[in-house]
Structure formats: structure tokens, C-alpha cells
Amino acid sequence: MKSILKISDLSKSYGGEYAVQNLNMHITQGDIYGFLGQNGSGKTTTIRMILGLIEPTSGYVELFGEPVSKRNYQVFRRIGSMVEYPGAYENLTAVENLEIHRKLMGIKKRDSVEEVLHLVGLSEARNKKVGEFSLGMKQRLGIGRTLLHKPELLVLDEPTNGLDPVGIKEIRELIVTLAKRDKITILVSSHLLSEIEQMATKIGIINKGLLLEEITLDSLIKKSERYIRVKVNDADAAIECLTKNLNIKEFTVENGVLKVYERLQEAVDINRLLVTNNIDVEEICLIEDKLEDYFLKLIGGLV
Hints:
Number of domains: 2
CATH superfamily of the largest domain: P-loop containing nucleotide triphosphate hydrolases
Keywords: ATP-binding, Nucleotide-binding, Transport
Family: Belongs to the ABC transporter superfamily.
Order of helices and strands: EEEHEEEHHHEHEHEEHEHEEHEH
Structural class: alpha/beta
Domain ABC transporter: 5-233
Protein name: ABC transporter ATP-binding protein
Strand order of the largest sheet: 6-7-8-3-9-10
InterPro entries: AAA+_ATPase, ABC_transporter-like_ATP-bd, ABC_transporter-like_CS, P-loop_NTPase
């Protein structure tokens, strides 16, 4: 896959205190990259460095395979971004706001405004003053403004912040549509795991300026699966016993501990079978880890 964004050992300090430290990130074409962390974890600082709004203390950023520098700032023309709250002229209509931005960006295609309004679901509100918009509509207009020049990478900082459930759902569905239908690679930050897990294909978890983990959503979901944890004195004998007698195939083993991902209601029977076959069972229990539990353990340093 084509590299869209690569960050290497990126740091930013203020007065000796690090807001972001030695951060590495890689986003490839087609990703919806969920940048997940609590408020104050370093998400916005990282995004501002990516967009060239602040200088890093150390490290570097590559966009579309090119290192970002003052000599090639034209690379940012390939990016659309919305950092924190999107500003707009509230006494003007949606069309008028987008027309101003189109002209400032030097976009010659006049019908790009109508295309964007349709894309973000604001066609019917095109002549309505922005001051009369709901917060969710304002967020969609802000995203629309970032799409006028047809960017290859879209960077959204907390786009669902402050929205009601309906507004959150609208923004989430819009992000997924832009990635799937319009083939835009997206970096979206949030402090809400519940939102990120519903749209991201890849997740980076940041806490106190450190990227703790970068993982695909599928791999993260596997960490939340239910399983029977079995600690035995002879893992090989236990595997042979369970495979032969119960036809168990979905399992992993590490350091003498088995994780059995099937027959989850039969822990008692599994225990009895192992003991009957002279395998010492030191521990057996049903584990039900949720994504939220894993996230909290990770930022708490317990994973």
C-alpha cells in the first residue's frame, strides 16, 4: 500500500516538558486511522505538527513519501484539515461560506460547491444562514470546506466533539462514506473509543504524549474476545487431550497458559477432562475482556 503519512521519532516540548515524545505513526492509502487518546494526551499537538502549524522539537514528518520542509509546503495542497472547531461566517449562507473559501483556494471549478454540499448532506440547507445551523450541521459544513479541493488525505481533530447522538452518527457515517466511496485516506482523532471502533480500520493509542500502540481494528477486536484461560503443568499434553476428546481447534498457548476460544460454557467439563487425564490444572476461568477494558489497561500501563 502507498504510504500517505509517516512520522518518525516526533517530539514537541514546551519549557522542558514534552507534549509529544518520540512518536511514530504510519498511515497507508485507504486507511481510516483513529487517533485515540484522552483529552490532553497530545493528539492536537501531533496534528498541528503534521499540518505544519507548529515546528517539532525533533523528528520528522513524511507526506506522500516526501519529507515535509519549508521548501515543499505545496504538499499541503493535497490535504484537507479541520482542527478543533470549524470557523464560519454565521451571517452568511452555506453556499456563500463555501464560495468564499473556493475563491481563496483558487479553485476554478464553480460547481465544486454544489458537489460538496451534496456530499455532506447540506444541499437543502444551502441558502440557510450558518448561524441557524445545528452544531452537527456546522461540523459537516466545516468538513465540506476541507473537501473543496479534493484532498487525498483528510485530517479531522475531534470532529464529533460536543455533538448529540444524531450529530455524532451523521459525522461518523460521512467519514466512512468519504473513505469507501471517494477513496480518501482519513486521520481522525477522538477521546471516545466507542466512536473510533465504529469507523477506524487502524488505531493509534496515545497517552501523555507517547504512542502506546498502533494496531488494526481487527487485531484490537481479537484482544477483546471471550475465552477460557487454562493454566496447566503440561501445555502440550493439554492441547492433545482437548483436541482429541473435544475436537477443540480455536486456541492459543503462551508460557503454559492456554486460551480456548470455543466451548465457552463448558469450562467445568474441560477442567474435569484434563484432571481425569492426569493433567494438573492450576487455574481455569472465563475471561471477558472488552475493548474499553483493554484501552484502560493500556493507558494505565497494565498491558
